[in-house]
Recover the amino acids of this structure.
């Protein structure tokens, strides 16, 4: 195994290849290093851009190396604080990064679920433009993802923070890994939902959106009837995994109940 | 918050307690808070080698071939250990107490009986190099049918897990394929009961999951001795086990332990010390063999799964007239301590209740699961869950409050217990009363007035007039002592005519040892045992000192 | 494997040692430096027994590459006592906040950072602060009590 360090992200991006893995906070890659299952080359970069947070009125950009602790400490990202706090304990939050979370397999990867619900876009190092996180996650679910390094994540800011909701379901209180996580962005126009986005974690090979639930919510008021209809369809089109925490059957069975809880919490504001 | 209810049993107790109820400092606390308590891995050695095992990916398979040629050439590999390198590659933990037959190799040579069973061990300069070399060992397996359920395992034709016990059942006292308890006549009592209440209860395995994983470091010492730092919970137990497997007098082994990063029963199996010492013997260098977290969870022996069937005969007023148990302990692929858990569990039946007719058949069953071992009250905790769940079921059947039902049936001082000891210092009645009070449950005047001190003994203190016995599950071909039999030179559990399973072929014959004499129960219909003769014993520990049974 | 020199500050003292490529900070501190207070519990970031403080923040030593501390300040439980035991250590002793003691060094690191940043934490704050540290003897309550008692003691002093 070789460890390579690069001053800039561009250099690191050039060094990547099928035999390499990029290490950010280390909470995923170092596990593999310790277990002797890591890629033969580990690529790191100390590029300060990776740790940058830029927040503006209608959006924000997070360097891929921004940690959960940085999110928690940032005043303008208060609506994401509950998501960051749901990730690990303080030590993990001081290390774990936004970019790494996009590659975290269940029962981890809760932050990516929130980013997916927000309609985030992914900027890849050394490549122009940005791709939708939906595509990046779908690709990860299918083939493990590309070897491109994520430089930053851009997302629109919910106009009303109450339109964004997040719920992590774990068996251990107060903290545990997720049986599933759910995030919803339900902007209201004239009291009706316009542009619903509902995402699930640990309900497929990678975080994914529920088209069925989004369809039910679209154009509706968030009321008991709508919530009940959404809950009924919660498992539709999802392909939950069986792991040590829960079986696929269990996850599908309880998805509706948890979606109901999340939507009711959002309804109450 | 501790609350002392000193009104109970006040005249039985000296109340000048110096420690109980008063805060005290642990004697080892300064080391703990300064990070200086010396756990096994906190001893640094120059040139330390690391051992990691090659493990079976199958639940059950015959080993056709183990090819270590590529692994031996890997960077950092100093030695590859195989079963043939272990001086005596077959053991059962309780052989130190003359209980059970040697059944488990340190490194399997002919077959594997659970997923994760070790078949070879790499000794390398670094842990990473040992891990890499593990992957380079090529093992050719022939997968065999496996069995993962206790009741499937005892059916005729089930795959034989461990050839030493060809019916997948441990042999008790050389006589039976299960541990028996016979007290009175349950069938007769069932015929006159007003209610029959039956239940099936099951407990899953539980991993102890100590914060510190199990491990040991061994190093050559002066005077042809080896020092071994270990996480063991039973230092002399591990010492004896290592001496046996390495055919080495224990005087050549210098064991250091006592600082354990959590054990909960999971650190008594002495898996690490023999291999670490063997590594040190064969390389002349210090060797560490420790599990990583994944191994701790996958191959670390858990509390075994248990399945219990309970059938009660109950009178209309809630008195339990008879209780019959059929129990299956899932021992996994080897015996470890499950055989003993059952001895303990059967001594505990039928729970803290005075029931005049009790019957139990309890089986120690081999399956192709991770071997089970000790964990916090093993042998008791599981069946207690079954008993107490069943008590609630009985309460429902007779229409009594569950606390009242327990008070009605609780042991009183002077009652005869099913294992033929007189109950004393009983306190369940009082516990139930306090529970009712705390839980806001109104008790009947009779239950409120009840006490453990009266109404016991007399008729309740006598043995049953008749105990129904049987020869169900009798085995032949095993010679051995039994509960009732005393003295003599016949070794407990020495097989006369052994089946010849492939993995037992290398089992060396042991010299005859004095008979095994567990003191605290008796065979069906036997009179209460007289105090056992103080037979001189060499080596073997008295089972009673381990089991917690005390001679009175 | 290539070795890299790593110089850093450990509990206030300058240290320098070589670290093999890919070696984690836990093994580096324990075997390379000889500070045995951080413990191995899982190697996966799940248990917190290896928690150390790097530049004032808790980190998991098992998931940190050794060379990542080059030029930085590392604190471990073995450096907590400075001539006499730290108030947190005193409280852990007084409140029986350790049984087997294996999680204790990591717990102390998490507790120290909490109190350095928040001198008067609530019980909920303490629970959150040690949520990344497992204790299998399940002694959480005495640990929480000990941390709160330290804060109270400091507030009175």
């Amino acid at each position: 195994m070789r460890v390579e360090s690069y001053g800039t992200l561009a250099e690191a991006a050039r060094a990547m290849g099928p035999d390499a893995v990029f290490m950010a906070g280390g909470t995923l890659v170092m596990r593999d290093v310790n277990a002797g299952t890591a890629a033969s080359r580990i690529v790191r970069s100390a590029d300060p851009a990776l740790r940058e947070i830029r927040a503006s009125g209608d959006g924000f950009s997070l360097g891929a190396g921004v940690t959960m602790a940085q999110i928690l400490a940032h005043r303008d990202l208060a609506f994401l604080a509950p998501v960051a706090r749901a990730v690990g304990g303080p030590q993990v939050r001081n290390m774990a990064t936004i970019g790494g979370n996009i590659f975290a397999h269940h029962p981890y990867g809760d932050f990516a679920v929130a980013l997916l619900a927000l309609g985030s876009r992914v900027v890849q190092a050394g490549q122009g433009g940005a791709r939708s996180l939906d595509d990046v996650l779908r690709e990860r679910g299918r083939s493990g993802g590309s070897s491109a390094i994520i430089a930053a994540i851009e997302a629109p800011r919910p106009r009303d923070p109450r339109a964004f909701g997040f719920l992590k379901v774990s068996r251990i209180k107060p903290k545990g890994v997720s049986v599933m996580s759910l995030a919803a962005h339900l902007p209201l126009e004239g009291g009706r939902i316009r542009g619903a986005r509902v995402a699930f974690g640990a309900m497929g090979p990678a975080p994914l959106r529920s088209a069925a639930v989004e369809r039910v919510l679209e154009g509706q008021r968030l009321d008991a009837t709508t919530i009940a209809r959404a809950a009924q369809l919660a498992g539709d089109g999802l392909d939950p995994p069986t792991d040590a925490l829960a079986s696929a059957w269990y996850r599908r069975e309880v998805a509706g109940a948890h979606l109901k809880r999340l939507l009711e919490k959002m309804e109450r504001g | 918050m501790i609350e002392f209810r000193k009104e109970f049993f006040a005249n039985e107790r000296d109340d000048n307690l110096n420690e109980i109820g008063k805060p005290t400092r642990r004697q080892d606390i300064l080391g703990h808070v300064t990070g200086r308590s010396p756990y096994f891995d906190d001893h640094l050695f120059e040139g330390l080698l690391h051992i990691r095992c090659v493990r079976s990916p199958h639940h059950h398979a015959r080993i056709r071939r183990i090819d270590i040629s590529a692994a031996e050439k890997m960077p950092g590999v100093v030695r590859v250990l195989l079963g043939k390198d272990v001086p005596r590659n077959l053991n059962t933990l309780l052989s130190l107490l003359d209980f059970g037959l040697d059944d488990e190799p340190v490194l399997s040579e002919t077959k594997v009986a659970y997923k994760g069973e070790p078949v070879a061990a790499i000794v390398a300069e670094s842990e990473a190099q040992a891990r890499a070399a593990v992957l380079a060992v090529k093992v050719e397996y022939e997968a065999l049918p496996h069995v993962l359920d206790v009741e499937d395992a005892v059916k005729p034709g089930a795959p034989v897990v461990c050839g030493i016990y060809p019916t997948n059942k441990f042999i008790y006292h050389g006589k039976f394929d299960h541990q028996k308890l016979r007290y009175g006549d349950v069938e007769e009592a069932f015929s006159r009961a007003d209610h029959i209440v039956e239940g099936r209860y099951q407990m899953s395995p539980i991993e102890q999951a100590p914060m510190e994983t199990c491990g040991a470091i061994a190093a050559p010492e002066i005077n042809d001795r080896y020092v071994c730092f270990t996480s063991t919970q039973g230092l002399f137990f591990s010492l004896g086990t290592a001496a046996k497997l390495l055919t080495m007098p224990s005087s050549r082994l210098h064991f250091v332990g006592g600082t354990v990063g959590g054990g909960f029963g999971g650190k008594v199996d002495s898996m690490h010390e023999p291999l670490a010492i063997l590594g040190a013997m064969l390389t002349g260098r210090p060797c560490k063999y420790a599990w990583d977290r994944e191994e701790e969870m996958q191959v670390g022996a858990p509390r075994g799964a248990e399945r219990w069937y309970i059938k009660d005969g109950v009178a209309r007023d809630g008195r339990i007239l008879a209780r019959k148990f059929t129990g299956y302990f899932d021992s996994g692929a080897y015996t470890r301590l499950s055989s003993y858990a059952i001895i303990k569990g059967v001594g505990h039946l039928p729970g803290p209740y005075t029931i005049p007719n009790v019957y139990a058949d309890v089986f120690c069953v081999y399956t192709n699961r991770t071997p089970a071992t000790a964990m916090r009250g093993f042998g008791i905790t599981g069946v207690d869950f079954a008993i107490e769940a069943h008590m609630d079921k009985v309460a429902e059947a007779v229409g009594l409050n569950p606390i009242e039902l327990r008070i009605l049936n609780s042991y009183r001082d002077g009652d005869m217990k099913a294992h033929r000891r007189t109950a004393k210092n009983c306190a369940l009645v009082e516990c139930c009363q306090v529970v009712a009070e705390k839980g806001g449950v109104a008790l009947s005047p009779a239950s409120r007035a009840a006490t453990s001190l009266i109404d016991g003994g007399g008729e309740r203190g006598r043995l049953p007039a008749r105990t129904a016995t049987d020869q169900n599950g009798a085995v032949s071909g095993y010679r051995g002592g039994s509960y009732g039999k005393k003295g003599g030179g016949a070794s407990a559990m020495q097989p006369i005519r052994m089946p010849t399973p492939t993995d037992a072929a290398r089992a060396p014959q042991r010299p005859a040892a004095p008979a095994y004499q567990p003191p605290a129960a008796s065979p069906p219909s036997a009179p209460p045992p007289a105090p056992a003769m103080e037979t001189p014993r060499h080596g073997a520990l008295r089972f009673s000192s381990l089991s917690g049974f005390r001679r009175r | 494997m290539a070795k890299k020199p790593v110089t850093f500050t450990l509990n206030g003292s300058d240290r320098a040692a070589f670290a093999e490529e890919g070696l984690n900070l836990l093994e580096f501190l324990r075997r390379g430096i000889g500070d045995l207070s951080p413990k191995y519990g899982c190697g996966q970031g799940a248990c917190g027994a290896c928690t150390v403080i790097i530049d004032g923040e808790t980190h998991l030593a098992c998931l940190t590459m050794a060379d990542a501390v080059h030029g930085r300040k590392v604190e471990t439980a073995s450096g907590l006592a400075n001539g006499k035991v730290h108030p947190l250590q005193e409280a852990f002793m007084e409140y029986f906040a350790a049984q087997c003691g294996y999680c204790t060094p990591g717990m102390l690191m998490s507790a120290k950072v909490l109190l350095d940043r928040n001198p008067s934490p609530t019980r909920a704050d303490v629970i959150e602060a040690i949520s990344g540290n497992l204790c299998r003897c399940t002694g959480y309550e005495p640990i929480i009590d000990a941390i709160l008692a330290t804060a109270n003691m400091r507030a009175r002093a």
In short: The CA atoms of residues 101 and 109 of chain A lie 5 Å apart. Chain A touches chain B through four residues (CB under 8 Å). Chain A has two domains: 46-156, 161-268.
